[in-house]
Amino acid sequence: MRPLLAMSNAIDALNEKIGYVCNLLVLFACLVSAANAMIRYAFSYSSNGWLELQWYMFAILVMFGSSYTFKRNEHVRVEIFYLTLSERGQLWLDLIGTLFFLIPSCLLLAYLSWPFFMQAYDVGEMSGNAGGLVRWPIKFVIPAGFVMLALQGVSEVIKRIAALQGYVTIDAKYERPTQ
């Protein structure tokens, strides 16, 4: 179980770093948005590139922020039923939901979105807007984000199995296993 917990910790650490970058992207997106609006109204100058950069930052934030949010147990959950379960029941529900729904869904969506990215990459897709950005890098974010969410799902499965076997307890606030 120790090698699996080490792998879980590595995935958690990676998603923690990604979460830090996503937190910075919120600030950068606000700054770019404010600067773009100020320049547009003060100097009557507008750039599609800056507007698209905002969209790209938001897309990165959503796609990669989901794995960070899942890691920190801050995701949306219907807790009416969940809270009535015992701690062991909650672990089982998390385990089953992640193993049979989250991970397969994420892997399917990553698989289905890969050709979407590859087509854009193969043709060197650019924005149709004047001054727009290259499109294929942001299209890579879609399968990559789903893969990262699936990896965090694997980490959560490992932690739940370890908790059910008594190796660790789960810190409810941040989902960190404690020994």
Automatic annotation (TrEMBL):
Source organism of this protein record: Bradyrhizobium zhengyangense
Oligomer status and interactors: The complex comprises the extracytoplasmic solute receptor protein and the two transmembrane proteins.
Stored Pfam families: DctQ
- Could you tell me which InterPro entries the record lists for this protein? DctQ (IPR055348), TRAP_DctQ (IPR007387)
Keywords tagged on the record: Cell inner membrane, Cell membrane, Membrane, Transmembrane, Transmembrane helix, Transport
Q: What main location does UniProt list?
A: membrane
What's the family?
Belongs to the TRAP transporter small permease family.
Q: Name one GO molecular function term.
A: transmembrane transporter activity
Q: According to Swiss-Prot or TrEMBL, what is its membrane topology? A: Multi-pass membrane protein
Record domain Tripartite ATP-independent periplasmic transporters DctQ component: where: 30-161
Q: Which residues cross the membrane?
A: 20-41, 53-70, 91-114, 134-151
Name this protein carries in UniProt:
TRAP transporter small permease protein
GO CC terms, sorted: plasma membrane
Compartment(s) of residence:
Cell inner membrane
Return the PANTHER family for the record.
2,3-DIKETO-L-GULONATE TRAP TRANSPORTER SMALL PERMEASE PROTEIN YIAM, SLL1102 PROTEIN
Q: What does this protein do?
A: Part of the tripartite ATP-independent periplasmic (TRAP) transport system.
